């Protein structure tokens, strides 16, 4: 049975049986998915089925029509990356939208895989990314290798059902010992070189180095410069950099909510409308922290700009990816934390869909 791990009143992880991916909702990153997908025993191995197809960005469209227009369906063998790429344009044309995005993920308790289908919203708020940096600054080669090894170790831990971790210090420390050992090394480097990491994150033309810097900066000593750099990198033109920056930022503000004063909510509300699943996933986790204080102005902004995408998220079939959205909608609806927690534990979605419109 799926169970929920609760820490300080916040549901932070879904623990699943051994061999099934039990990962915190902040956890998945594009790099980790890439590491698993390219591994000798890939995440989406031959014979794995599509367990669930989750849609987002579909306001104004009929879900049954969307499902019928897809060339693959729940229960089918999971399509290859080449099949997914070939299906994008025909599917977008069939539903009358300019762009769609297919994002594979793992896994349901029976071991089947998830497919997220993102649909470009015609009237989405503008999501403006930074210009691509052009600087020549780089991280040391051995540190970049440490970053690569870290991503691979995380992927290995996730494949073994050991994807949980501890965020109590404001950064991730995985339960999987090999990954945790590398994270401690990254922390040592980050605490000794925060200025270097900020420079690379802001200026390097190499996205791999910017991504490694974003990951490491989350382990650096807390500072206004650290938060400013992570906020800026949240809107990097590279999706992996964005993803790691928002994940690190979310961990930091959850640990110290006072840091939210340095974080502009508006850009992350626009991110909730992105066609990129990782953008929506991490933005929801960060916005969850904004909602916890129940500031009237914040809740009004969420009512006006976030209800539609959050309602889509809570209907995803893997509830571990929907918990942030559920909590936010509960606060928008005026529910107390105990009621939100009780319904989260049950994964009972209908009451929140009725309450938050």
Structure description:
It is a single chain. With 357 residues, the chain is mostly helical. 50% of the residues lie in helices and 10% in strands. The protein is built from 16 helices and seven strands. The chain has helices at 30-37, 63-69, 81-95, 141-159, 177-192, 194-203, 207-217, 224-233, 239-255, 265-271, 277-292, 296-305, 307-314, 323-332, 337-346, 350-355; strands at residues 3-7, 10-15, 50-56, 100-106, 113-119, 165-166, 173-174. Strands 3-5-4 form a three-stranded mixed beta sheet. It has a two-stranded antiparallel sheet with strand order 1-2. The protein has a two-stranded antiparallel sheet with strand order 6-7. A hairpin with a 6-residue loop joins strand 6 and strand 7. Helix 1 (30-37) packs across helix 4 (141-159). The chain is globular and about 55 Å long. It starts with a strand and ends with a helix.
Topology (elements, then pairings):
Elements: E1 3-7, E2 10-15, H1 30-37, E3 50-56, H2 63-69, H3 81-95, E4 100-106, E5 113-119, H4 141-159, E6 165-166, E7 173-174, H5 177-192, H6 194-203, H7 207-217, H8 224-233, H9 239-255, H10 265-271, H11 277-292, H12 296-305, H13 307-314, H14 323-332, H15 337-346, H16 350-355
Parallel strand pairs: 3-5
Antiparallel strand pairs: 1-2, 4-5, 6-7
């Amino acid at each position: 049975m799926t169970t929920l791990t609760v820490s300080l009143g916040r549901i932070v992880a879904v623990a699943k049986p051994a061999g099934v991916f039990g990962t915190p909702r902040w956890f998945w990153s594009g790099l980790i998915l890439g590491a698993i997908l390219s591994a000798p025993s890939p995440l989406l191995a031959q014979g794995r089925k599509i367990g669930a197809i989750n849609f987002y960005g579909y306001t104004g469209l009929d879900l049954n029509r969307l499902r019928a227009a897809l060339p693959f369906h729940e229960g089918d063998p999971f399509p290859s990356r080449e099949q997914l790429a070939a299906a994008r344009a025909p599917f977008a044309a069939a539903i009358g939208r300019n762009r769609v995005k297919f994002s594979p993920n793992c896994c349901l308790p029976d071991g089947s895989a998830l497919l997220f289908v993102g649909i470009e919203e015609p009237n989405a708020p503008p999501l403006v990314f930074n210009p691509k940096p052009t600087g020549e600054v780089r991280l040391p080669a051995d540190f970049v290798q440490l970053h690569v090894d870290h991503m691979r170790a995380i992927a290995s831990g996730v494949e073994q059902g050991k994807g949980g971790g501890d965020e109590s210090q404001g950064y991730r420390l995985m339960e999987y010992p090999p990954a945790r050992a590398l994270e401690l090394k990254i922390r040592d480097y980050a605490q000794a070189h925060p200025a270097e990491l900020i420079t690379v994150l802001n200026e390097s033309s190499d996205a791999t180095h910017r991504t490694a810097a974003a990951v490491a900066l989350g382990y650096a000593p807390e500072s206004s410069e650290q938060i400013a750099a992570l906020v800026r990198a949240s809107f990097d033109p590279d999706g992996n950099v964005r993803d790691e920056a928002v994940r690190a930022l979310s961990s930091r503000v959850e640990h110290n909510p006072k840091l939210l004063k340095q974080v502009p909510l508006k850009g992350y509300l626009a991110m909730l409308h992105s066609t990129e699943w990782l953008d929506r996933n991490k933005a929801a986790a960060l916005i969850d922290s904004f909602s916890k204080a129940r500031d009237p102005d914040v809740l009004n902004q969420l009512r006006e700009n976030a209800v539609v995408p959050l309602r889509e998220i809570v209907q995803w079939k893997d509830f571990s990816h929907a918990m942030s959205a559920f909590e936010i909608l509960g606060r928008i609806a005026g529910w107390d934390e105990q009621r939100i927690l009780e319904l989260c534990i049950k994964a009972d979605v209908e009451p929140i869909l009725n309450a938050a419109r």
